[in-house]
Specification:
Number of domains: 2
Largest sheet: 7 strands, parallel
CATH class of the largest domain: Alpha Beta
Bound molecules: adenosine monophosphate
Number of strands: 16
Helix content: 25-40%
CATH topology of the largest domain: Rossmann fold
CATH superfamily of the largest domain: P-loop containing nucleotide triphosphate hydrolases
Strand order of the largest sheet: 3-4-2-5-6-1-7
Number of helices: 15
Length: 444
């Protein structure tokens, strides 16, 4: 199968040739003809499957071949994405695909001045990529009109709900013309997403290119168990030992990102961090430098790293496990993209056993464990498996203390510290109605 047999027009085929795309990926093979045929779409596709081209190519073709010329402040196609970085990335892909078409494309997102965006929108835009909050701001300030809107794309819809954008989505939805084509893409499909799909889509074609909630099988995944306080030391050790070249590291909190970056920089490692507290320009610069291999280690929180497309990224390290198991799939989706192989290593401490168990249940696999000599945890991580069982070993009677017993560490022994029992419960997948009016969650 070729892109030509899918019905794409010559200007798009030429752009794809320049980009070196030869064969459509499975999601593209299914989505492109359906979108060209005007169908609504509900697609379960992981990041790295080529989903962006799956919706952008037919969308650009429809815009080029059909519909009126765009008028002032209007937009003909809208792609909603959860984060600023993803907005930039999707827009960059769109720009490349539309290289030979007379279409105006643009991206708007928060964290940067709104005025230049308002100016740019004055002339009208054929295809706009936007984050929900900024889009609403622009709409409320009359910088945007939706009367010409023919297609809406919700990209990474699950993430938009996770980030608390349901209210914004409901408001946007109310402002859009009822007659339109809607495409919904999501790596994972929760009940909330299905509810959203039921409200927004009209007789959609369902596409599922990989089994539901199963992580990319091109990614070799394993776990190293370690005591919480020794994670930074273990990371530096693995970095040196394995001579890692380029690593994307996920930490749970902004402070965690900063602390690890500081430590690595202190050791002379070329590292930088991105998280929601950093200005957009700084985040983008760090990302660009990482993509250009000018930075060896990029440490990020989930929000900042969502959807990033970094070519041939060999390795993702979960310095902390994600609180929401689905984020694990998104994180490791940064590697092993578009058919290449990758590796994802998780540093797991006893506190995180429930999170590990939730990930194994979701991905329907027991992650292989690897013991790193010298880092065998004092607080052993109980065995887990894909059934969701956490197998706690019985307490061993404490040995009487001997004098001069040496170091504090109890290498290789099972020590019941009570920490496991205190491990935080796995945060349930949100079950609130899609269009709730509750407060927005803080972004990590
Ligand atoms: P996505 O899942 O849309 O983020 O795409 C992942 C990566 O695959 C991007 O770097 C795309 O440029 C690349 N890609 C998408 N479709 C193809 C294709 N048909 N052939 C080769 N590379 C592709």
């Amino acid at each position: 199968m070729t892109f030509a047999t899918l019905g794409l027009i010559d200007p798009l085929l030429r752009a794809l040739e320049t980009l070196g795309y030869q064969t459509p990926t499975p999601v593209q093979a299914q989505a492109i003809p359906a979108v060209l045929g005007g169908r609504d779409l509900m697609a379960a596709a992981q990041t790295g499957t080529g989903k962006t081209a799956g919706f952008a190519l037919p969308l650009l073709q429809l815009l080029a071949m059909e519909g009126p010329k765009v008028t002032a402040n209007s937009v003909r196609a809208l792609i909603l994405v959860p984060t600023r970085e993803l907005a930039e990335q999707v827009h960059e892909a769109v720009r490349q695909y539309a290289e030979n078409l007379p279409l105006r494309t643009y991206a708007v997102y928060g964290g940067v001045s709104i005025n230049p965006q308002m100016m740019k929108l004055r002339g009208g835009v054929d295809l706009l990529v936007a984050t929900p909050g900024r889009l609403l701001d622009l709409f409320r300030q009359n910088a945007l009109k939706f009367n010409q809107l023919q297609t809406l794309v919700l990209d990474e819809a699950d993430r938009m709900l996770d980030l608390g954008f349901s209210e914004e989505l409901a408001n946007i939805y109310r402002a859009l013309p009822k007659k339109r084509q809607t495409l919904l893409f999501s790596a994972t499909f929760s009940d909330d997403i299905r509810l959203l799909a039921g409200q927004m889509l009209n007789d959609p074609l369902s596409i599922e290119v990989s089994p539901r909630n199963v992580a990319a099988n091109t990614v070799k995944q394993w776990v190293v168990t370690v005591d919480k306080k020794r994670k930074p030391e273990l990371f530096s050790h693995l970095l040196r030992k394995n001579r890692w070249k380029q690593v994307l590291v996920f930490a749970k909190t902004r402070n965690g990102v900063d602390a690890l970056v500081e430590r690595l920089q202190g050791q002379g490692v070329n590292a930088d961090g991105i998280h929601g507290d950093k200005p957009q320009a700084t985040r983008q610069r760090a990302l660009d430098r990482f993509k250009a291999s000018e930075i060896q280690i990029l440490v990020a929180t989930d929000v900042a790293a969502r959807g990033l497309d970094i070519e041939d990224l060999p390795l993702v390290v979960n310095f902390d496990l994600p609180i929401v198991a689905e984020d694990y799939i998104h994180r490791i989706g940064r590697t092993g993209r578009a058919g290449s192989t990758g590796e994802a290593i998780s540093l797991v401490c006893a506190d995180e056993v429930n999170l590990l168990s939730a990930i194994e249940m979701l991905t329907r696999q027991t992650l292989k464990r690897h013991d790193e000599p010298d880092f065998i945890p004092e607080h052993r991580v109980p065995e887990t498996d894909a059934s969701g069982q956490v197998i706690k070993k019985p307490k061993k009677p404490k040995k009487p203390k001997t004098s001069g017993g040496g170091g504090k560490r109890n290498l290789g022994k099972w020590v019941d510290s009570g920490e496991v029992a205190e491990a935080p419960a796995v945060k349930p997948v949100r079950k609130v109605p899609v269009f709730n009016t509750g407060p927005r969650k803080r972004k990590p």
